[in-house]
Amino acid sequence: MPFARLATATTPTCHIGLGLAAVGRPGYINLGRETDLGENRGVDEMRRRTHDLLDAAYAQGVRYFDAARSYGRSEEFLADWLNANPGKNDVVIGSKWGYTYTAGWTTDAEQHEVKDHTVQTYERQRRETAELLGDRLDLYQIHSVTPDSPALTDKELQAKLAEAAGHGITIGFSTSGPAQADAIRAALAVTVDGEPLFRTVQSTYNALETSAGPALAEAHDAGLTVIVKEGMANGRLADPYAPEAVKAVAEEVNLGCDAVALALVLREPWAGVVLSGAATAGQLASNLHAAVVDLDEGRLSRLATLVEEPRTYWEQRGQLPWH
Questions:
Q1: Over the stretch 7-41, which tens digit does the pLDDT of each residue have?
Q2: Which domains does the chain have, with CATH numbers?
Q3: Alpha-carbon torsion angle 81, 175, 195, 15, nearest 10
Q4: pLDDT per residue over 280-300, tens digit each?
Q5: Rounded to whole angstroms, how far apart are CA atoms 265 and 268?
Q6: What is the pTM of this model?
Q7: Phi, psi dihedrals of residue 239, rounded to the nearest 5°
Q8: Where's the NADP-dependent oxidoreductase domain (predicted)?
Q9: Closest Cα to residue 269, out of 93, 57, 15?
Q10: Cβ atoms within 10 A of the Cβ of 107, count?
Q11: Which of 96, 154, 177, 279 suits a disulfide with 36, CB 3.0-4.6 Å?
Q12: In sequence order, what are the residues at sequence separation of 6 or more whose Cβ sits closer than 8 angstroms to the Cβ of residue 126?
């Protein structure tokens, strides 16, 4: 399958992918967006920013790009870039369905996205994704599966996902919330005609939220490619918001807090691709230094003290404002 080649990449930067959540729409919950993006967040400006990021990422060895139907115009911006760069056939493209973007290109909407894992939403969003990305789509994931998601029990939906897999699209799922481990294990048990349905899992894992780790290791052992999102906890692990322990390690290794945070994830043997959520080319370059961060046992011990109880972590995440 096309996606599998990333799991065996030998270039360190190929283990870092670029997620487009922060640049596909004007509002998001990452800290520091006022500084990162400024006030000009019109469609054309965000398209240019996205293309600049994709150019910088590709030039530095990044080969996985991650979008979603709910990331505003991320699929559109990515499709434009792919069409303008027909020779870049070595990139792997993933997207997600299950949330509908409802903010209308504003930062102060009452509701920015609506979750729905029904067959009807899948069919609509699959058509929308196909209109933009066509046969460039390699991976299609269910967005934010939780243990009670109907996607884990809806046989009609699962059959349609298996049909897409039969046409060469890798099928995966992402998770969110304090019960990520339960969702991962439930998804691993989903089969269609005796075959596992899911080939990838994308979950939140970082210095503050490590609860999905054992289940992600199980998924890796079962043959799934593991993609890690929110490695910097929506900016909580980046300058200037990072805890003192992260800042101290960053000073010791003479690199950014963001590189330290991502390095902690990259060292996990089950981590196939770790996503950068950079909003600027400078942030991306700093993120990519994660591959050379030296985390010795002493530094790892200090970073281990940062782990939060999952429910506390997710409650705080839910309170982050849409900037």
A1: 444 344 559 999 999 999 999 999 999 899 998 99
A2: 4-317 (3.20.20.100)
A3: 50
A4: 999 999 999 999 999 999 999
A5: 6
A6: 0.96
A7: -60, 140
A8: 50-305
A9: 15
A10: 16
A11: 279
A12: 97, 140, 164
